[in-house]
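Recap for those who missed Tuesday's class. We walked through two folding examples back to back. For each one, the amino acid string is listed first and its predicted structure tokens come directly after. Nothing is annotated here on purpose, so try labeling regions yourself before you check the end of the notes.
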Amino acid sequence: MKFDGVKNAPILLLMVTTIAVDRCSAQLPTPSAINFIGIGYNILEGNPEGGELGSGGVDPGLLVSRRILELSYDNAKLSSDSQYRVPDEVYFVPRSSAYTSSSRTTFHGTQSYASKLSAQVDVSGSYSSVFTNVEFAASARYETISNRMSSQGSVFFATQTIRNLGNARYLTELARPNGYALNNGFISDACSLPNSYNEAAYMQFLNAWGTHIVIEVDLGTREGTNYEESRSSFVEYASTQVSASLSAAGSYAGYSASIAVNMDSFNSGMESGTSFGSTYSSYTVGSSELNEPIKLELIGLHEVFDEKYWTLLSTYIGSGHCTSSFQRSSVGSNVLTAMQNYANYASIAERTGDGQVLIPLTWPDGTYGLPKPTSGCPNSEFTWPEGYRHHDTEDDNSNNQWSNPLNLAGSFSRNNMRHHFCMKTTSVVDSNLQWSWQPGSYCIYKYNSCPADFTEGSIYWDDEDNNNGNSASGTKPSGGYNSNTQIFFCCRSDGVTDRAIFLPTEDNFILSPSLFDLPSGQRNDSNEELVSLGQRR
């Protein structure tokens, strides 16, 4: 009796302790996002920003009702800090304090948008590039933004803040030695597939179970906002913020010239704290309760047909979930074939590279005038109303001068001069093709009001007093046209003269210099010419 009393006591104590530990672990929470590990993922329909615009939330590619890798809790396993209950097949490391990171990106086509999304969804393993040119393309949010970029020419600026609170990973390296199980529903469907490839059967299988499997998740929160800007407004923004990113380009959209933005140059030159566009969509994924994954790592669905995931095949056959005729390797190869053809089957076209960010090169917005060249007013999408001013300058001691040759329309003599004008009287010709005057050192004629960033000024001529023959006709710059002449100008001196400004150059035009500094007009055949009207001294 004494032997039994001595020896049985520690055994009884050990049993009580074990039961207590099991009960304690059962009461601990499990981060719900861990339950996304081992489920199917459809990479065509997925989008890390969530579902419909404005809703955010869980990635629609996550097939929460399609578990492929089974999770169990037989070993009373805990997280590294002993605060969470963790599946036997998973390793989970929570962070004691959040790691926060922020990012800023731009996108203007489906390629750059998909690149932004793929930063939150990594695909590893063999044949990881199968869906590179079609991933996310069937998601509602992708289609909506894609339509905005193609139909409106929108350019987007995106901000995103991530708070990483932990990481959970399926222990793929222990699948074979520990005999990890597959989900019975998945086993049943997989074992029902024909050993020879049948497109309908295998495509239905992908529709049901997805193209990939989630094997690792980051937990925490991810918040982001996409800002939209029209293409013309974006190019104008780039011209003022990162002017080195602009260059002249060829014909575009029926116009003889265009302006291109090098997006790599723009992104690298964009200063911290600057932004463009107005809010288009926002999203929030996850919370401090670790209920949603904020980043995924996937393997292709064909990977799960590796023998290391089927160590319990005999058990599956014995339970009736599989049959002895099942050819695992052949079915796995067929699944890969189906994956390679899945996008075409789903009528999802492959992405092509993003095109250039281009806008037609048009005359800047605003009302103003230019001196008329001998070749006539510029040929543009609108008509320039014309006018002239005849100066009866001083007959005695006149000091009129002009360049020779002179490309300025009009008549020029010792004591009389006639100047012709090309006037833009409509401020905005096409709201979809807006463009502004750029920084420089030059003047234009004033008409009603000066465009933004110009300063008003005028020149007054005291013309001939005797038998004055002044006359004027047509549309003229703002000013006074009687026996004397006053013409108003709009001038700016906020740029350097050796930096090109972008203006249509298919026809000749003339800019008046500010303080005799003449900016280049993005053409290599510009010349400086001079007209001087003498005054009595």
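Example two. Treat it independently of the first, because the proteins are unrelated.
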Amino acid sequence: MKLINEQKEEIAAQADDLLTKNEEIQLQNSIIESKNRHITDSINYAKKIQKAVFQISEIDKGIEQDFAIFLKPKDIVSGDFYWIKKVGSKSIFVGADCTGHGVPGAFMSLLGISYLNQVLQQSITRKREVVQKEHAKVGIYYEYIEAEDELNSNPAAILEELRNKIKNALHQSDFETTAKDGIDLSLCILDTNTNELQYAGAHRPLVYFSNEKLITIKADRMPVGVHLKEKSFTIHKVRLQKGDCFYMFSDGIIDQFGEDSGEKFKMKRLLDLIKKNTRLSPAGQVQLIENEFDRWKGNHEQLDDVLFIVVKV
């Protein structure tokens, strides 16, 4: 009888111990859930900030071209970004893919946008004109008025200046010893008077459709950032026609594995899709690309941020 009572007491003690540990686990889980909610709320707020920055870029006054954008972050915030500006008769379009995704990529995207704005301001010539006026009391006088700004740079020069700023900000003095963070991007400047398109690219190509042909211009094989064999970026010039389209995109689409096939989406599939649907509006083309990407991915994990931009001249 004594043995049974001792066993009961031992079982009761173990039960109390388990109950205490269970309560501790529940408390820890509650703390973890609270911290996760706090982190998620913070990232969601960061998403709002990033979205606001993107929208400020997108609605830059004076953009005449019809364009559409498909941006699908892997996580809540994105390391891919777009940047669109108008200076005088020049429309500037950037599609960029920063190192990483999620929060680190998002910080890089904001750094990239900030420095692009700085470089652009350094590349603008503010023009003023002298206008002769006449007043009944004072007679003829002259007045300065602000004229249309002029962009005095090209895509390659902008990328090189952006590279210098990124390297300085990240303290990338030596390729062997510093972090390899950087930005892959396409930068296009369209002259709205002549329809001449200037392009420079860091790991990201330019695709354009003109005269019933889809043409790809390869990018320089180096990022905007530190690189083992740095050189000047190459500038490419193309004369487009009214109604032609050009395309910029990150590698998030072509590197995505499909649920059914287990294969990557690949560049050829993307180019075939573009070529078959150039008659659609930019919004229609973007919607088709988005639908096909989602269909291809299925329930497979999204591997990277996705960005796809269509501009119609």
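Answers for example two:
The chain has a mean pLDDT of 86.
The longest helix spans residues 2-58.
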